[in-house]
Recover the amino acids of this structure.
């Protein structure tokens, strides 16, 4: 009988912990993301959606600007997860590649720009503490991680373009390359 009671208590504690996590999101990340959405939409309204679309079209013209520059700028300015929303200005064909590059960039830039992905800062801090224990400079590692991340995120985005083309052809779907 004690096992059944312990199981029931553990089962209920799982839902209590889930509720606590949900409430922490409602007082933590949800208001921040909401304010970022408001700020981004306000900026777009002030600049004009046509100008933002032109910027997206210009960045969509080549893979370097599409998968290196635009993800870097959007992650630096908007942070994770809001930076992914910049993909809404790209043509449908390039959205999967942008999301692939963007999501990776939010991780590889944490050492230099911790504001981009504070939710996963503990990963970087764990690595950094090991590097400090060895007597090495953590900024050297952070810069290398950022640079390697830029290159690999670009490769990931570009490879996703090829996969998008393959799957589109396989499924008989045509995605637009223009806005």
């Amino acid at each position: 009988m004690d096992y059944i009671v312990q199981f029931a208590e553990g089962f209920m504690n799982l839902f209590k912990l889930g509720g606590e996590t949900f409430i922490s999101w409602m007082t933590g990340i949800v208001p921040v993301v909401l304010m970022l959405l408001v700020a981004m939409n306000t900026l777009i309204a002030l600049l004009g959606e046509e100008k933002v679309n032109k910027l997206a079209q210009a960045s969509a013209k080549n893979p370097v600007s599409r998968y290196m520059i635009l993800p870097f700028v959007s992650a630096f300015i908007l942070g994770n997860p809001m930076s992914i929303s910049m993909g809404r200005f790209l043509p449908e064909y390039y959205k999967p590649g942008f999301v692939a590059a963007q999501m990776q960039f939010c991780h590889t830039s944490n050492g230099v720009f911790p504001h981009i992905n504070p939710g996963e800062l503990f990963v970087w801090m764990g690595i950094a503490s090991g590097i400090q224990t060895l007597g090495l400079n953590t900024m050297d590692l952070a810069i290398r991680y950022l640079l390697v991340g830029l290159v690999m995120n670009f490769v990931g985005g570009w490879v996703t373009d090829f996969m998008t083309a393959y799957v589109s052809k396989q499924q008989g779907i045509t995605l637009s390359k223009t806005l």
The two ends are 64 Å apart (CA to CA). Residues 48-178 form one domain.
